[in-house]
């Protein structure tokens, strides 16, 4: 798929008569402009220009030059905005591929690659920080509830500061509390908070070389894997390695020593992680071993740091660590790209350009003749399949370091649990029994549930009414701590009703369970132990996550309860019990990857235990205890699962065999969206009939979440043997996919979200 000569390289400056310019719009088209004589010397590709464009003046990016005059009069470029290119030719090619593969505008792709802070050139050195006044923990109830009724957002900000005793940047406090600077100033006047202006410290102070840690001595398996990697590294086109190593098999040590080798050859490394804030242990291990490391916190701050971007550009950095967008870091001379936990969905971007970091990694590596290592204990079936076809070299680490055993996994049939006990309890008898034993031995417990909030349904026991979001056709979740109902799709908040909005009876019932409810239950059942809940509600403040994990590591907390936040990466030898509260949350999703995700989640969570000499045990609760994704995960049988799942997908031609593309139509008008989806589907079906195209059109149908944010949604799926036929087809209907009559269309090549 990713051959080098497939790409048209942007025209070099052979003749600079006309500039080719792209704009940040969802249209894959290049526009031509005259370059007035005064600007000619100043303009190269990758610079921004001001141009007249349909009666407006807009900013575009120069992507090349044309030397043959075009058969129409061209307008002049007004001015050149940069003195140096924001993006080099290599990355221009990457963005061109992005736009053609993922069907978005070239300009859109370029803007996705250059972080906003670099474009706007704000050098934000100063920042405002907020701290709670010393007496907020003691604030009496009346003062607080007074603020709560008058200014709920201010009260929220105070509650956050009370929960978190450190300093928070004002920007972040505003973001998570909804309280603007003006409100914060009022709190300052009342003496409730302290506002400080501070110079931003460098995020990653260089480590003293003398303090850098030594490499560990490899085990035989690690050494064998490393030798194979080394052999690849010496090849002119190293390609891709799939490192399939079970949890605790020592993959990270192999990454570290491979990085060392590559840096020793004066080449650079990109290390991608699913999410920066959830991978602190791995990042610390890298930073303890190397100097010149840049950790790009793009996810947390919304931007890269300008200075970091420059350091990378100026060759001062050896290793860039970051989430998916770091694959665009302006690093030169890359020798190695690592995707840790390559199966994670966070590598896929969910707005345009809807790229997958794995594809971009492989593309960049092809240009740079770099090696790609995809590492995982549960590789995506895409990567597993490509390795079995011989496209990637596969290296397997089937054993844990130090002959540690994988934990034994017990499946609890929750249907029996319901029959056995008068009242259904979320924590089964078996799990409770093991928890008691584990805690009594001074060991620690991790509990996993993939659902936050207190209860996912608010309903009336008398008339059956279910409370839904007023903007989305989706039940809202009750969040008890904040005493709100929250829509998990559009984030709309409301006050929970006292009585049924429909029949007015006061029979409001909270059904189902989320992490908040489990927390209450655990506190009631295990009053002598400390529990911490980790989900995006309790961990909103930057740094809270690290703080909680440190307390858990020190043994100050015995029970860690959390969402997918705790599923990966954690390495605590004293954790000897893991409980999966419900294996069914993902399994029941209407998505062809539901089984794969369930298998991955259980395997990853199970991998958090048995990491020390005391061994470990896992209890998985499910209403589908015989489902193969659960039984194979319990048996630690990845290959068994993969073969079974591939066996299901092959006859249906689902990925990794066929290629999927999803088109979603959205409109505030239900009739119009349905009409448009049907029109496009019929056109496609006719095209298929006429061309004998081996393309399958599924749908149109309403999406499983039929209305989000007041927009009705319909979708259709294209299933094809290869990308060419998808691209060709999409080109044929490009005009139909432009927004019209209030209906928007969104194209997602290789979709991961089916809702
Ligand atoms: P993975 O990334 O595959 O889950 P890790 O790299 O976290 O595995 O390794 C698991 C544990 O084994 C870690 O505590 C790590 O420090 C330790 N470890 C890894 N390699 C070695 C080695 N060669 N000698 C001793 N300990 C090792
Ligand atoms: Zn909503």
UniProtKB/TrEMBL annotation:
Sum up the protein's function in the record's words: Initiates the restart of stalled replication forks, which reloads the replicative helicase on sites other than the origin of replication. Recognizes and binds to abandoned replication forks and remodels them to uncover a helicase loading site. Promotes assembly of the primosome at these replication forks.
The record's listing under PROSITE patterns reads:
HELICASE_ATP_BIND_1
From the Swiss-Prot or TrEMBL record, give the protein name: Replication restart protein PriA
Q: Which cofactor does it need?
A: Zn(2+)
Q: Cofactor comment in the record? A: Binds 2 zinc ions per subunit.
The keyword Cell cycle appears for this protein:
no
Give the multimer and partner information: Component of the replication restart primosome.
Respond yes or no to whether keyword DNA-binding is given for this record.
yes
Q: Which gene encodes it?
A: priA
Query: What EC number is given for this enzyme?
Result: 5.6.2.4
| Positions bound to Zn(2+) 2 | 469, 472, 487, 490
Task: Give all residue intervals belonging to the Helicase ATP-binding domain.
Answer: 232-397
For this chain, one GO molecular function annotation is:
3'-5' DNA helicase activity
Share an example GO biological-process annotation for this protein: DNA replication, synthesis of primer
């Amino acid at each position: 798929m990713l051959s080098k000569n497939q790409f048209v390289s942007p025209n070099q400056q052979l003749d600079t008569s006309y500039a080719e310019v792209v704009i940040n719009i969802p249209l894959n088209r290049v526009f031509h402009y005259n370059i007035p004589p005064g600007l000619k010397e100043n303009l190269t590709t990758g610079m921004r220009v001001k141009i007249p464009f349909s009666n407006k003046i807009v900013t575009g990016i120069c992507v090349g030059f044309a030397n043959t005059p075009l058969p129409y009069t061209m307008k002049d470029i007004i001015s050149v905005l940069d003195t140096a290119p924001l993006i080099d030719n290599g990355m221009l090619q990457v963005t061109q591929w992005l736009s053609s593969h993922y069907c978005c505008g070239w300009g859109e792709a370029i803007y996705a690659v250059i972080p906003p802070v670099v474009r706007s050139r704000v050098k934000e050195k100063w920042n405002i920080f907020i701290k709670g006044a010393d007496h907020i923990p003691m604030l009496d109830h009346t003062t607080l509830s007074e603020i709560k009724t008058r200014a709920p957002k201010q009260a929220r900000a105070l509650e956050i500061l009370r929960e978190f005793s450190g300093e928070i940047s004002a920007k972040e406090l505003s973001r998570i509390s909804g309280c603007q600077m003006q409100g914060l100033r009022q709190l300052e006047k009342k003496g409730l908070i302290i506002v400080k202006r501070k110079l931003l410290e460098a995020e990653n102070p260089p480590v003293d070389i003398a303090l850098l840690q030594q490499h560990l001595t490899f085990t035989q398996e690690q050494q064998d894997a490393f030798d194979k990697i080394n052999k690849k590294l010496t090849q002119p086109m190293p390609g891709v390695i799939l490192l399939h190593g079970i949890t605790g098999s020592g993959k990270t040590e192999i990454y570290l020593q491979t990085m060392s080798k590559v840096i020793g050859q004066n080449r650079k490394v990109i290390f991608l992680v699913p999410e920066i804030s959830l991978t602190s242990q791995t990042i610390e291990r890298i930073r303890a071993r190397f100097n010149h490391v840049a950790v790009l916190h793009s996810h947390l701050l919304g931007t890269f740091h300008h200075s970091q971007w420059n350091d990378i550009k100026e060759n001062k950095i050896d290793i860039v660590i970051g989430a998916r967008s770091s694959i665009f870091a302006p690093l030169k001379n890359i020798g190695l790209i690592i995707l840790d936990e390559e199966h994670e969905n966070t590598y896929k971007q969910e707005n345009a350009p809807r790229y997958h970091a794995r594809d971009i990694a492989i593309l960049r590596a092809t240009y740079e003749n770099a090696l790609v290592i995809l590492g995982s204990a549960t590789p995506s079936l895409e990567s597993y399949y490509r390795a079995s076809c011989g496209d990637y070299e596969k290296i397997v680490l089937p054993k844990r370091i130090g002959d540690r055993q994988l934990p034994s996994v017990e499946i609890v049939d929750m249907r029996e649990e319901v029959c056995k006990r008068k009242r259904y309890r979320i924590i089964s008898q078996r799990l409770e029994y093991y928890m008691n034993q584990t805690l009594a031995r001074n060991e620690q417990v991790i509990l996993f549930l993939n659902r936050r909030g207190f209860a996912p349904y608010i309903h009336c026991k008398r008339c059956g009414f279910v409370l839904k979001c007023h903007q989305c056709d989706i039940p809202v979740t009750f969040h008890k701590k904040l005493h709100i109902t929250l829509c998990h799709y559009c984030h709309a908040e409301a006050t929970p009703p006292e009585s049924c909005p429909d029949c007015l009876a006061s029979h409001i019932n909270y059904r189902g369970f989320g992490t908040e409810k489990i927390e209450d239950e655990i506190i009631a059942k295990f009053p002598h132990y400390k529990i911490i809940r980790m989900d995006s509600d309790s961990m909103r403040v930057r740094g809270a996550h690290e703080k909680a994990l440190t307390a858990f590591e020190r043994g100050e907390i015995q029970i860690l309860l959390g969402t997918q936040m705790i599923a990966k990466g954690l390495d605590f030898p004293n954790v000897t019990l893991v409980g999966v509260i419900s294996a069914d949350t993902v399994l029941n999703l209407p998505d062809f990857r539901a089984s794969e995700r369930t298998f991955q989640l259980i395997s990853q969570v199970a991998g958090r235990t048995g990491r020390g000499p005391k061994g470990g045990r896992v209890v998985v609760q499910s209403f589908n205890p015989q489902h193969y994704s659960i039984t194979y995960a319990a048996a630690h049988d990845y290959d068994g699962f993969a073969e079974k799942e591939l066996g299901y997908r092959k006859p249906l031609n689902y990925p990794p065999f066929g290629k999927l593309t999803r088109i979603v139509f959205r409109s505030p008008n239900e009739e119009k969206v349905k009409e448009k989806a049907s029109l496009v589907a019929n056109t496609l079906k006719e095209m298929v009939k006429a061309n004998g195209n081996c393309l399958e059109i599924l749908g149109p149908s309403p999406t499983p979440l039929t209305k989000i944010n007041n927009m009705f949604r319909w979708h259709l799926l294209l299933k094809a043997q290869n990308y060419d036929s998808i691209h060709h087809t999409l080109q044929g209907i490009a005009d139909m996919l432009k927004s019209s009559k209030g209906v928007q269309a969104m194209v997602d090549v290789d979709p991961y979200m089916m809702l």
